[in-house]
Amino acid sequence: MRIVLVGPPGAGKGTQAAYLAKNLAIPHISTGDLFRANISQGTPLGREAKSYMDAGNLVPDSVTIAMAEDRMEQPDAANGFLLDGFPRNLGQAKALDEYLKDHSLKLDAVLDLEVPEDEVVKRIAGRRICRNDSSHVFHAEYNKPETEGVCDVCGGELYQRDDDREETVRKRLEVYHTETEPIIDYYKAQGLVVDIPAMGKVDEVTTRAMAALPSRDA
Q1: CA distance 144 to 157
Q2: Is 59 one of the annotated binding-site residues?
Q3: Distance CA 129, CA 134 (A)
Q4: Model pTM?
Q5: DSSP code string of the chain
Q6: Distance from C-alpha of 25 to C-alpha of 58, rounded to nearest angstrom
Q7: Cβ neighbours of residue 83 under 8 Å, at least 6 residues apart?
């Protein structure tokens, strides 16, 4: 099973990707993990990506595509994979199509996690992170600490990251609409897109996504 997962920031792609990949016994391939792995291992692609990042520049699509292709060729991806964060734009989507065609492979589905924009803003802008340990995450509405501004786990100060501020979130959404949403229409033309309502509990969304996938025997 070869799947692309798309959706706006705050839709829960990372969480859903991990659950779906486990249920389907395929690797979860995320752009963030690819960059971290290549940079930490000092691969040629990692060094190239780091040179752009250190200079404050965007990493070119060619580097991202090469990292993704290298990962898809690893033995654990022989029977499928779930792509999260790639492709991010039309150029990357077309490159993925070429790669799959060259290897006599095809995508089985593109899962589009649908969340209303106001809910995206609420989810992200409400996050509060512990200054002592960033793994301690709370939410101003959905997961309130017992004492406002104080981490339940260690007593550290809770704060809002700059990336989580409403104005930043709305800018990220603009980028998503401009760069990533066009790939949904691209894949719709191929009959691959399945809309997944992503409101509700995590396991409920996972159940919807699993039910929407084509049969592996098809």
Answers
A1: 13
A2: yes
A3: 6
A4: 0.89
A5: -EEEEE--TTS-HHHHHHHHHHHHT--EEEHHHHHHHHHHHT-HHHHHHHHHHHTT-PPPHHHHHHHHHHHHTSGGGTT-EEEES-S-SHHHHHHHHHHHHHTT----EEEEEE--HHHHHHHHHTEEEESS-TT-EEETTTB--SSTTB-TTT-PBEE--GGGSHHHHHHHHHHIIIIIHHHHHHHHTTT-EEEEE--S-HHHHHHHHHHHSPPTT-
A6: 33
A7: 3, 4, 5, 29, 68, 96
Name the residues annotated as catalytic: 13, 88, 127, 161, 172
| Residue 69 CB-density burial (10 A; 0-12 exposed, 13-18 middle, 19+ buried) | middle
* 17-26 residue pLDDT tens: 999 999 999 9
Domains of the chain as residue ranges with CATH: 2-115+181-212 (3.40.50.300)
> 86 a known binding residue?
yes
Which residue type sits at 209? A
Whether residue 74 is annotated as binding a ligand: the answer is no
Tokens 């839709």 sit at which residue? 11
How does pLDDT run across 57-92, given as a tens digit for each residue? 889 999 999 999 999 999 999 999 999 999 999 999
